[in-house]
Amino acid sequence: AFLGYEPYDKVGYNSGNSRNGSYSRQFETKYGTVQLSIPRDRNGNFSPALLPAYGRRDDHLEEMVIKLYQTGVTTREISDIIERMYGHHYSPATISNISKATQENVATFHERSLEANYSVLFLDGTYLPLRRGTVSKECIHIALGITPEGQKAVLGYEIAPNENNASWSTLLDKLQNQGIQQVSLVVTDGFKGLEQIISQAYPLAKQQRCLIHISRNLASKVKRADRAVILEQFKTIYRAENLEMAVQALENFIAEWKPKYRKVMESLENTDNLLTFYQFTYQIWHSIYSTNLIESLNKEIKRQ
């Protein structure tokens, strides 16, 4: 099919290219080593569509190496594990090279161009065990964006020992350098100082506090006997039919519980950007009053 004619067909005479035997190649998979016979042509143009050029192992094995490396297993230990599990011998140098290739992919990710405009930007920090000589949990500051067409993607991330505003500022600076000029709404969990950093980077962007985080905070500060009722009443605030009804529900909620939980309700009164999402089309309200979208991503990352 590649040459366009069958073996010994006269059509191939003087065509400029012809079959030239085959060569052997080993390909390592999670099922064992496969011995392959790869056809050759005189001009050296043919390459198998199902096998990567010069590749000697499938993606599953590389993913296994990377995951083991990230959890702190040494290159020599990884080599032994792969050999025991799959019968392949990878030298520590090969393990190191696989990890370096991953680092190059990461650099490409951080340098790629992004869209100029995003409808929603979700910012959230999550802790993962990372390998830097030793293994310890560090904070991954993650930005997830949704385009006006509804396409969502991880835009960037920044790693630090703990969540901090310097890392958030660095991440937003990088996103600007990658091309993001305008954001309509930024949804966050209310990390102290983050709202000011967002305003500096994108002064025209509206901001929304994650109401699920607010709800969890309420649950942790009220008595167990009141918890179910309070949380159910709080839901009426972000499930109202419009902004006016939401404002009224918030006022009623605070008025009812302030005598018993004064500090908690005063804190709620002083919290900005609780109901910003009502300014957007109602079809997306349930997606933008919390950071649940990016938290789902974080859970998937941890599961991997």
Automatic annotation (TrEMBL):
Which is an annotated Pfam family here? Transposase_mut
Record keywords: DNA recombination, DNA-binding, Transposable element, Transposition
- One GO BP annotation here? DNA transposition
* GO molecular function terms attached to this record: DNA binding; transposase activity
Q: Which family does it belong to?
A: Belongs to the transposase mutator family.
Q: Which function does this protein serve?
A: Required for the transposition of the insertion element.
| Protein's UniProt name | Mutator family transposase
